[in-house]
Amino acid sequence: MTELIDGLYLEGEKIADTKAPHDVPIAQRWEQRKFNAQLVNPANRRKLDIIVVGSGLAGGAAAASLGEQGYNVKCFFYQDSARRAHSIAAQGGINAAKNYRNDGDSVYRLFYDTVKGGDYRAREDNVYRLAEVSANIIDQCVAQGVPFAREYGGLLDNRSFGGVQVSRTFYARGQTGQQLLIGAYQALERQVHAGTVKEYRRHEMVELIVIDGRARGIVTRDMVTGEIETHLPTPSCCAPAATATCSSCPPTPWAATPPPSGGRTARAPTSPTPATRRSTRPASRSPVTSSPS
Ligand SMILES: Cc1cc2nc3c(=O)[nH]c(=O)nc-3n(C[C@H](O)[C@H](O)[C@H](O)COP(=O)(O)OP(=O)(O)OC[C@H]3O[C@@H](n4cnc5c(N)ncnc54)[C@H](O)[C@@H]3O)c2cc1C
Hints:
The protein has six helices and twelve strands.
């Protein structure tokens, strides 16, 4: 597998597209991407189902945020509770270029340190975006109630971590991941209660359904009953399936190109199967079913 500037290649074939606009400097790419992306009218969001696989810091936060924005979200994970995702194990802290210590930190320095720390193998567009939004992520976590360490004056404390020369790591004792996950979990459960997110516990994704080069659905196995289920977002022509099965592991692309013949990608069923479970959305906001039938 080779990583080139515009995506991930397997045996010369592009299997993931970063969609980063490379005609503008790296510092403007995320802004440009957001500007070029199609918006979804808030009134139409309730008509779209979105599948999120994973309930850790990535998947849990994504599902909660999408649910809060008004989409119908199905969140799949194989643990018995979203709180048992492996993010619970993270300890040292989370980096943000807030420059609270006035020690010369900046978005570019966080980007530089992260690319270097990743042995120059990370996707630089994504690393720059991470550095850009890092300060907002801390604010979001504080708003979710994450008890970050504070100085006696009440301001957020931070420390130097990972061999860098600036103090930019926000932490909660040695349990940062646990505290962050509790924050994300609370936000997720709030949306479950509101009916915008449906959790599928003890469900393992076994195949990704790719239609016209895009991830459009998943095949899962109920780990309690063994039942195999097909889940296609509604309408499957435009709603995405997102995988957040562990940011530390090899990525599963958001928009995958079908692999060469013989690959393991599942084919879309010719006649979609009925939904095996119903959405928990309140009847007043349910103009569509959770899966096409
Ligand atoms: C000991 C330790 C310490 C760490 N310390 C730090 C630190 O100090 N700072 C830092 O920034 N990072 C740290 N990390 C890394 C950080 O914890 C991870 O990168 C991050 O938590 C990954 O989050 P995630 O949401 O992508 O994955 P996870 O939290 O692993 O979540 C994966 C989710 O995907 C689901 N899933 C996976 N496969 C399937 C499937 N086939 N079907 C259905 N669901 C599936 C799981 O059920 C789970 O919900 C540490 C990691 C470890 C292990």
